[in-house]
Amino acid sequence: MTNHALFVGLITLDLIYLAESAPQNNQKLVASDYTVAAGGPATNASVTFSYLGNQATVLGVLGSHPMTQLIRGDLTKYNVAIADLAPHINTAPPVSSIIVTQATGERAVISINAVKTPADVASIPADILNNIDIVLIDGHQMQVGYAIAKMAKAHHIPVVIDGGSWKTGFEQVLPLGDYAICSANFHPPNCHSETEVFAYLQALGVPHIAVTHGEQPITYSSRGQFGTIAVPSIQPVDTLGAGDIFHGAFCHYILQADFTHALDQAAKIAAEACKHFGTRRWMDLRSEQE
């Protein structure tokens, strides 16, 4: 049976360069490789979910600027449907420029988030949750995310919150979430330690919480039971989008396994992605091998 998911949030165009290092002031670098892809946390997660054999829809602001054809082309290739909250705007989509350091896989990113293109809740399609099995919200379209989370809750559809970093409005959305998958950079108000982050999320009623730490073990709390999950040890080529890919894989596995198993499997997928440059090549190479 094919599962369907809705991914709510940011749609960007990512220009990704592989170089020896990030540039210094007034320095010009020649990249050894580059790639162009659709980006944004919800968008990358949707591509991963689709690649793993499901049907994904990303809900965000895209518009009709000529540059959006690059985004549409990439998402069409990976069978991701787009629900555009502002199809008639003709401003350029947010563009992220990313430099990946060749020796370490670390990345430097400059981008514009969705703050300049907030969507109107009234533009949410009435039937958006038809046949949807799970929803992910990345917080970049917070009002729309809140509205979708309320709708999902009413329809008993599980909600995954991507807590990459704290964004104002999460305090409204999080109590509607079933799963909060956060990075170590997720710092709610007055939270200065991971213990305080877990306590904050538990106080909001989130039953399942995980915090990722890159190559270090994942810490989690599932209905008050704490634990850790080791992640595969690899030599990273590119860590860009690893968290997004993790979230997309988690949405896939949580529909067929328990929380800890879903985290473990998602970590393996994200580690595999980090062995390859860019956010798509791991899929292309894996498909060729299969």
Description:
It is a single chain. With 290 residues, this protein is an alpha/beta fold. It has one domain (4-24, 31-289): UDP-N-acetylmuramoyl-L-alanine:D-glutamate ligase (3-Layer(aba) Sandwich), CATH 3.40.1190. 29% of the residues lie in helices and 26% in strands. It has eight helices and 13 strands. The protein has helices at residues 41-51, 68-77, 142-154, 170-173, 194-203, 242-253, 259-273, 281-289; strands at residues 4-8, 12-19, 33-39, 55-60, 80-84, 95-101, 107-110, 134-137, 159-163, 179-183, 208-213, 216-222, 225-229. The strands form two sheets. The chain has a nine-stranded mixed β-sheet with strand order 5-4-1-8-9-10-11-12-13, with helices on both faces. Helix 2 (68-77) links the parallel strand 4 (55-60) and strand 5. The mean pLDDT is 94.
Topology:
Blueprint: E1 4-8, E2 12-19, E3 33-39, H1 41-51, E4 55-60, H2 68-77, E5 80-84, E6 95-101, E7 107-110, E8 134-137, H3 142-154, E9 159-163, H4 170-173, E10 179-183, H5 194-203, E11 208-213, E12 216-222, E13 225-229, H6 242-253, H7 259-273, H8 281-289
Parallel strand pairs: 1-4, 1-8, 2-6, 4-5, 8-9, 9-10, 10-11
Antiparallel strand pairs: 2-3, 6-7, 11-12, 12-13
In N-to-C order, the SSE pattern is EEEHEHEEEEHEHEHEEEHHH
Strand order of the largest sheet: 5-4-1-8-9-10-11-12-13
Which blocks of ≥5 consecutive residues have pLDDT under 50?
Answer: none
Overall mean pLDDT stands at: 94
Q: State the separation between the terminal residues, measured CA to CA.
A: 21 Å
Largest sheet: 9 strands, mixed
Rounded to an integer, what's the Rg over CA atoms?
18 Å
CATH topology: UDP-N-acetylmuramoyl-L-alanine:D-glutamate ligase
Number of strands: 13
**What's the number of structural domains?**
1
* CATH level-two architecture: 3-Layer(aba) Sandwich
Question: CATH top level?
Answer: Alpha Beta
Q: What's the CATH H-level homologous superfamily?
A: Ribokinase
Total count of helical runs of at least 4 residues = 8
Secondary structure: helix percent:
25-40%
Shape assignment = globular
